[in-house]
Amino acid sequence: MPDQLLDHVAADANAELAKVIDAIAKASIDIRLEFPYRMGIVEGGENKYGEQQLKLDAWTNEFLCDRMIETNLVKAVYSEELEQPETGLPDAPYIICMDPLDGSSNVKSNNSCGTIVSIYKNELGRGSEQVAALFKLYGPVTTLAYTVGKGTHQFIQQLKHDIGFVISQENMTLSATGGIYGIGGKKEEWNPKLRTFVEGLEPRGYKLRYSGSMVGDVNQVLHYGGLFAYPKPKLRLNYEAKPMAFLIEQAGGASTNGVQSLMEVLGDSVDARTPVFLGNKDLIKEIEKMNR
Ligand code: AHM
Ligand code: MG
Questions:
Q1: Ligand 2 mean position to 176 CA, how many Å?
Q2: Is there an atom of ligand 1 within 6 Å of 102 CB?
Q3: H or E element in which residue 117 lies
Q4: b/e per residue 68-85 (b: at least 16 CB within 10 A)
Q5: Partner of 173 at 20 to 30 A CA spacing, among 54, 129, 149, 248?
Q6: Confidence (pTM)
Q7: pLDDT (tens digit, 9 = 90+) per residue, 241-277?
């Protein structure tokens, strides 16, 4: 069976980028095999954000770093779980930022989680300088959505007969009607204008669907349209916000930190956190207008 994901990325970008994305995709089977084995086992340590690290967070981080570096196409991997970037060949073309296991607080209860990856050429830059972004969702099946700036495309990992990522949706487009909303954190952390805006969503037809993992929640918005937000600056600009903004914008949506597109925000450090709003353009415009 031809490798549909590899061929798609090679056609939309180039063979080298396709090789890196393919290595990330192929790591999914091993990652999933570790879930039942390491589920709920606490590492005992904390990551650089002072959050408890699961055995699975640490294992997935190391496994993915190794798979990326061994392509010889990755110069450095910055990760939510690493104090210092993991380095590869100094002349390799790509720089990666990743959240190896997003939504790891969902692991204990067997709810969805995923991997988020952002890829730059030569050096880290603004979101608009990403050459690719992708997420994998470890749900009932593994899906992968990627963009290289030519639309957002979804693949499903087939396990029967031939293992491989098979295209399931090309050029995903956020639905303009209906839609769902999912907002993380506590209402008391939102400003009064935001509270009023959120209260107005259901009368406008939006339905609450919130999973507790950014990958799961953004994926729902990609499929049904609407809004995902985490207004308190908890989520990470480089590891979570920028790649998801690229994927949503390439599907016809928009992103903001409340004031400007997440694709243009310059954080004050590689580990910076940011408020995140991702979804249909009209909703994002309203949020920015409200903050002016
Ligand atoms: P993680 O990368 O450590 O899992 O943190 C990110 C996750 C997101 O997936 C999700 O949107 C958010 O944290 C939920 O956090 P909380 O349960 O603290 O509100
Ligand atoms: Mg995360």
A1: 27
A2: yes
A3: strand 113-121
A4: bbebebbbbbbbbbbeeb
A5: 129
A6: 0.96
A7: 999 999 999 999 999 999 999 999 999 999 999 999 9
Place of tokens 């393919």: 22
Query: For residue 231, what is the enclosing H or E element?
Result: none
Residue 116, phi then psi, degrees to nearest 5: -120, 135
Rounded to a whole number of angstroms, the distance between the first and last alpha carbons of the chain is 53
Structure tokens at 203: 């009368």
List, in sequence order, every residue forming a beta bridge with 143; answer none if it has no partner: 137, 156
Q: How far apart are CA 272 and CA 6, in angstroms?
A: 32
- Ligand 1 site, residue 99, Cβ cutoff 6 A: yes
Q: Which ligand 1 atom minimizes the distance to the CA of 106? A: 4
CB distance 131 to 111 below 8 Å: no
Residue 235 CA: nearest ligand 1 atom is: 6
CA-to-CA distance for 85 and 78, rounded, in angstroms?
5
DSSP code, position 240:
I
Directed axis angle between helix 4-12 and helix 15-26, to 10°?
Answer: 150
Tokens of 25: 């995709």
Q: Is the pLDDT of residue 54 over 90?
A: no
Ligand index nearest the alpha carbon of residue 117: 2
User: How high does pLDDT run on average in the chain?
Assistant: 95
User: If you average pLDDT over residues 103-123, what whole number do you get?
Assistant: 94
Ligand 1 pocket member 288 (CB < 6 A) = no
Question: Average pLDDT of 86-97?
Answer: 98
Tokens 């969805």 appear where? 112
